[in-house]
Design a protein that fits this description.
The chain is α+β, with helices and mostly antiparallel strands. Helices cover 12% and strands 28% of the residues. The protein has one domain. The protein is built from three helices and ten strands; from the N terminus they run ββββαββααββββ.
């Protein structure tokens, strides 16, 4: 399996990359505790995108895992979840953080956030999505109790864990190394770090 050069997602920033049908992306949790918000859009029409609401209905569970087809808001497969070396806890419940969210968390000045990172990453490759869909939050640990209550868990992943997602259509994958430094979703130290990715043939 041929791999491209390793590319960096800087801490607190976003990146995007185009994939042809059949290509795959390997997203690497370099330091082990970094959440990577991940989106995928159809290259033909950015209004078709990977959709957690539609995916949960298709998979009949809230955690995607190896062997799953990840589907769009038009219920078509867009990515195949090919490999996962982590414990497999990837959140599909929480929206991407935004400036409003950090205001609710007590910030009085602008805070880096995944929503803006999505638009910045897409802008770098000349694209603007029509909206910010709810991302698959790779390695984000949101425990769900029997009564439906959720909590902000620390990551279960370890340094070097990775997932491989293979394109089922020509698409654009966008990623944000989540800037969350108030809640412990990026580890007890609350210190966002870089992540990396490679294109895989």
């Amino acid at each position: 399996m041929a791999e491209s050069d390793l590319m960096r997602i800087p801490a607190r920033r976003g990146r995007a990359v185009r994939l042809s049908e059949g290509q795959a992306i390997k997203i690497i949790n370099t330091h082990g505790e970094q959440v990577v918000d991940t989106w995928c859009f159809s290259a033909e029409d950015l209004s078709e995108f990977m959709s957690n609401e539609h995916m949960r209905a298709t998979l009949t569970r809230i955690f995607p895992r190896k062997g799953d087809e990840l589907v769009t808001n038009r219920r078509r497969p867009i990515l195949f979840f090919e490999e996962d070396t982590s414990p497999g806890r990837h959140d599909t419940l929480m929206a991407a953080c935004d400036d409003y969210r950090y205001g609710l968390l007590g910030c009085t000045e602008y805070h880096d956030n995944c929503t803006d990172n999505l638009f910045a990453g897409m802008r770098q490759i000349g694209l603007r999505p029509p909206e910010c869909p709810s991302p698959v939050n790779l390695w984000m640990n949101i425990p769900v109790a029997d009564d439906g209550a959720t909590t902000w868990g620390e990551p279960l992943s370890k340094p070097g864990d990775y997932v491989i997602l293979r394109a089922r259509m020509d698409c654009v994958v966008a990623m944000s190394a989540c800037p969350q430094d108030i809640l412990p979703i990026n580890g007890r130290s609350r210190a966002p770090t870089e992540a990396h990715f490679q294109i895989v043939d």
